[in-house]
Amino acid sequence: MINSKKPYLLVAITMFTFSSCTKIYKTPKADTTSLKNAFKKDFYIGTALNENQIEEKDPMVTAFISKEFNSISPENIMKSMFIHPEKDQFYYNMTDKYVAYGKKHNMFIHGHTLIWHSQLAPWMAEIKDSIAMADMMKNHISTIVGRYKGRIDSWDVVNEALNEDGTLRKSVFLDTYGKDYLINAFKLAAKADPKADLYYNDYNLCSPEKRKGVVNLVKNLQQNGAKIDGIGMQGHWQLTSPSIAEIEKSILDYSALGVKVAFTELDITVLPNPWDLQGADVNQNFEGSEKMNPYPNGLPENIQEQLAQRYEAIFKLFLKHQDKISRVTFWGANDSQSWLNDWPIKGRTNYPLLFDKSFKPKQAYYNVLNLKKQE
Ligand code: XIL
Questions:
Q1: What is the mean pLDDT of residues 128-144?
Q2: Considering the domain boundaries, does residue 14 fall inside one?
Q3: Closest ligand 1 atom, CA of 48?
Q4: SS3 helix, strand, coil % of the chain, rounded to 5?
Q5: Is the separation of the CB atoms in 166 and 209 below 8 Å?
């Protein structure tokens, strides 16, 4: 006798098997053996390289960097004072090595930065009129972007052009060429390498006033026929500020302009900020002050935990918006490399990254990776 219930059983078993298979297929567990593997499907994970790292002076460090990161930014060597120190002199020794490093390790290669008022070649600071400025910009941008055409994947075309209130910062570029220097820079970069992604990069991009400035800047470029592909939010942040809500608002507002969002210089200071002290004068000498350098011999457990939770919350937000985010780059590989040991006060001990001074993963690293284990 045929058991009339059997066909239903068969259907049920088939459906169960099929649905559990599709479930497994849709959400394969991320490979959490490294940052770059864990976030492979979400965004690039980058680091900034200093000269010793580019020159692969320490094989242990090279192995560490290529295990954890799949994108690189040059911490200093591509800034105008280093790559274009004299009007007729370009210095490519380090930048060629940097690009070769990225190719060798199969990484996304970022260029930082073409037009910036800081670490500016002294001869550029002396430019007095629009013709000489136009000449400099054409020579600087076309030559450098052209040299690395098809090899450098994205560029910070202009860095830090805005004041905190969203207006254009006073600089030699603005003073001589006028406000259209941004349009000129982006057009020159696009012409020199039409396929490279072009970014505007800046800090404090979560503050509402500056955010409005960025939105206007991008719209102005777009309306004037200049190609801009992304906004680089530097991400030099603190333990409690900016809020996750403000970061999210910026991601949403920038991507609504049709551009990508990258976090380009992420680090989180755990040290007191001179600007937060009432009446603090930044020019005052804080060096050697115990109050300003509270953890010279190690980070207390409770702050370590706070840092871990802060990074976890930030990456949770990044994952929520992974479709809008192209890259998350840390400003340095480990705590001892961080510029925050010397800025804004020299000679402090800071703990802003995911790896400690011996390259050991910190609690923050595990919290960030755990987000992918839970998905
Ligand atoms: C910093 C470097 O990390 C330091 O080594 C250097 O002395 C100063 O510049 N915003 C930027 C980066 O766009 O280029 C800066 O890098 C940090 C702030």
A1: 98
A2: no
A3: 3
A4: 45, 15, 40
A5: yes
pLDDT in tens, 37-87: 999 999 999 999 999 999 999 999 999 999 999 999 999 999 999 999 999
The rounded Å distance from CA 373 to ligand 1 centre is 33
State the number of CA atoms in the 13 A half-sphere of 70 facing the CB.
15
pLDDT of residue 4: 46
**Is residue 163 included in any domain, yes or no?**
yes
Query: Catalytic site residue 265?
Result: yes
From the CA of 68, how far away is ligand 1's center (Å)? 22
pLDDT value of position 2: 41
Q: Residues with beta carbon inside 6 Å of ligand 1?
A: 75-76, 159, 234, 265, 339
Interior/surface letters 215-254, b for 16+ CB within 10 angstroms, e for the rest: bebbeebeeeebbbbbbbbbbbbeeeebeeeebeebbebb
- Given this model, what pLDDT does residue 274 score? 85
| Count of domains observed in the chain | 1
**What range defines the domain where residue 296 resides?**
19-273+284-373
SS3 145: helix
Q: Does a structural domain hold residue 11? A: no
- Which atom of ligand 1 is the closest one to the Cα of 236? 18
Per-residue confidence at 276, pLDDT binned at 50, 70, 90?
Answer: confident
| Closest to 236 (Cα-Cα) out of 266, 258, 207 | 266
pLDDT tens readout for residues 141-154: 999 999 999 999 99
Q: Can you give the CATH number for the domain in which 168 is found?
A: 3.20.20.80
Decide if 69 contacts 51 (C-beta within 8 A): no
- Asked, for residue 8, whether it belongs to a domain, the answer is no
Closest Cα to atom 3 of ligand 1: 339
pTM (2 decimals)?
0.92
Give the separation between CA 352 and CA 266, rounded to whole angstroms: 9
